[in-house]
Amino acid sequence: MLKIVVCVSGGGTNLQAIIDGVAQGAITNTQIVKVISNNQGAYALTRARNAGIQAVCIAPKEYADREAFNQAFLQEIDQAQPDLIVLAGFLVKIPVQLIRSYGNRIINIHPSLLPSFCGTGYYGLKVHEAALARGVKITGATVHFVDEGMDTGPIIMQKAVAVKEGDTPEILQKRVMEEAEWLLLPWCINLIACGKVKVENGQVLVSE
Ligand code: GRF
User: Fold this and answer.
1) Which of 124, 73, 123 is nearest to 102 (CA)?
2) Which helix (H) or strand (E) holds 71?
3) What is the C-alpha to C-alpha distance for residues 91 and 96, in angstroms, rounded to an integer?
């Protein structure tokens, strides 16, 4: 059984896709053991509690400094003893210590085809604003392992989504979620739970 902790900051539609995937059998052999948010008001916490999952908030502003927050965050993760940490719209810089302790056991979803529109400042709607400003005709989503860089870890899977004339950032964000993110993230978690994902020389290999 793959024990996962999901970290969230906002609405939690990706979390919901994981919850539904586990409930409906699209994600096998997996248990969501805890949901962690940095934001007390995140609707994702309600989604977790509605599904009977332990949901906790650890807000940086409640700690004296970043180091104290990082320690509390690490402790919260370690207590759950997860096999995999899933960042599903988590807007907090992950402490390097966590990345080192959980090498190739942290995944993130990013709402573009990496390496486009990523790095500092590219989150949420800003990613879609940048894609529209550049005039790309295809965008999408990427699930990748988290390394010490920003959006630079080994790519597990990507899905393309068409940009259409008249798209606004909001419309494009919705299409990328519906056509890519909500499918891709559960799919990747299931592959990992089935032991089908390996990282070799910084590249992901997915077996049949
Ligand atoms: C998603 O677009 C995800 O790719 C990004 O943040 C957003 C989170 O949305 N990293 P939600 O909270 O899952 O609805």
Assistant:
1) 73
2) helix 66-80
3) 15
Q: State the average pLDDT for the chain.
A: 97
3-state helix, strand and coil shares in percent for the chain, rounded to the nearest 5 = 40, 25, 40
Q: Whose CA is nearest to atom 7 of ligand 1?
A: 89
**Span 135-160, average pLDDT:** 97
- CB within 8 Å of 68: residues ≥ 6 apart: none
Coil, strand or helix at 180: helix
Region 190-200 average pLDDT: 98
Separation CA 191–CA 26 (nearest Å): 10
Residue 25: pLDDT over 90: yes
H-run or E-run covering 36: strand 30-37
pLDDT at position 44: 98
Q: What pLDDT, on a 0 to 100 scale, did the predictor assign at position 208?
A: 78
Tokens at residue 113, please? 């085809």
Tell me which of 34, 47, 110, 144 is the catalytic residue: 110
Name which residue sits closest to atom 10 of ligand 1, judged by CA: 89
Can you tell me the distance from the alpha carbon of 105 to that of 88, in angstroms, rounded to the nearest whole number? 14
